[in-house]
From TrEMBL:
Gene symbol of the encoding locus: CWC25
PANTHER family found in the cross-reference section: CELL CYCLE CONTROL PROTEIN CWF25, PRE-MRNA-SPLICING FACTOR CWC25 HOMOLOG
Recorded superkingdom: Eukaryota
Biological processes, Gene Ontology terms: mRNA splicing, via spliceosome
Subcellular location: Nucleus
GO CC, alphabetical: U2-type spliceosomal complex
Name this protein carries in UniProt: CWC25 spliceosome associated protein homolog
Residue ranges of domain CBF1-interacting co-repressor CIR N-terminal in the record: 11-47
Keywords: Coiled coil, mRNA processing, mRNA splicing, Nucleus, Spliceosome
Main location: nucleus
InterPro entries in alphabetical order: CIR_N_dom, CWC25_splicing_factor
Amino acid sequence: MGGGDLNLKKSWHPQTLRNVEKVWKAEQKHEAERKKIEELQRELREERAREEMQRYAEDVGAVKSSAASTASWS
């Protein structure tokens, strides 16, 4: 006689389509933010490695210092 699950009619029930959609959207947003952070961290590591190589080349004398080669505007 009872038919369906009355909890599916409750707004707080985790299996209602609206609540499933909210959770899915929140997970997608979290995943996009995580990927953005990973990309920024990767770019930062690459930039630091590039600067370290430049500094090493300047110390060895293979490359002139970038500060010495800039034009004087005064």
